Amino acid sequence: MNWLTKMEYKYGRRAPQRLMLLVAGGQIIAWLAMMLFYAPLPLHLVLDRWSLFRGQIWRLITFLFVPVSFTPNPLFFALSVYLIYWIGSSLENAWGSFKFDVYLGLGVLGAWLACLLTGTGSAMSLYYSLFFAFAYLFPEVQLLLFFIIPVKVKWLGAIAGILYLLNIIFAGSLASSLALIVGMLNFLVFFGKGTFLAIKREIEQRRRRREWQNQWRDR
């Protein structure tokens, strides 16, 4: 992506660093406030088209601070927040702050567009996109499924991708399906072409393999 390289050369030194630390910290504060003082707090933070048009523009940012998990169990909440922070930090370490900030910003833009399409929005597609990017870059890394079973990230990413695709297909309305697609704006911009070429290459290899096997059977 030449445009991204040019932008990084021009603006990279001024890129904010460790934005995922801000997101994780905001979620922790929101979760504590929700559990200790005011349970309906997320209702004032989420993306809502009607509220945005009434001037509540803080929702354009605060939706990132809605806890990724509403569990009252502090251990499970801490693990979920840490996982998101770890994935985001790993991407930033691999790309550098500027490219990661662009990726994160495009994900936020995707959430805004999804909100305009359906009336509501969340950071869930953004978290999916972070995980998909991580699986794309680090396919051989292992995570412990259910804290016990070691599974390579590429397989978890494939399963998550299939589930996300099914959500798009069975979303229930065209607007909802489009919202899920634009929610992946950052992943499509960064990896869309590479993913398409990889799938095309895999299909071509399978076709050639079948042709080769058929030739040997005919002999």
Structure description:
By secondary structure, the chain is mostly helical. 71% of the residues lie in helices and 5% in strands. A two-stranded antiparallel sheet has the order 1-2. A two-stranded antiparallel ribbon has the order 3-4. A hairpin with a 3-residue loop joins β3 (142-145) and β4 (149-152). α7 (124-137) packs antiparallel against α8. The longest helix has 34 residues, at 185-218. The N and C termini lie far apart (47 Å). The mean pLDDT is 86.
Features:
mainly alpha; two-stranded antiparallel ribbon; two-stranded antiparallel sheet; 10 helices
Question: What is the topology?
Answer:
Layout: H1 2-11, H2 19-36, E1 47-48, H3 49-53, H4 59-62, H5 74-95, H6 97-118, E2 120-121, H7 124-137, E3 142-145, E4 149-152, H8 153-169, H9 174-182, H10 185-218
Antiparallel strand pairs: 1-2, 3-4
Range of helix content:
over 70%
**Structural category:** mainly alpha
How far is the N terminus from the C terminus?
47 Å
Spatial ordering of strands, largest sheet: 1-2
Q: Could you state the order of secondary-structure elements as H and E?
A: HHEHHHHEHEEHHH
Q: What's the average pLDDT?
A: 86
Beta strands, count: 4
* Cα shape: globular
Proportion of residues in β-strands:
5-15%
Low-confidence spans: none
**Radius of gyration from CA coordinates:** 20 Å
Task: Let me know the largest β-sheet.
Answer: 2 strands, antiparallel
How many helices? The count is: 10
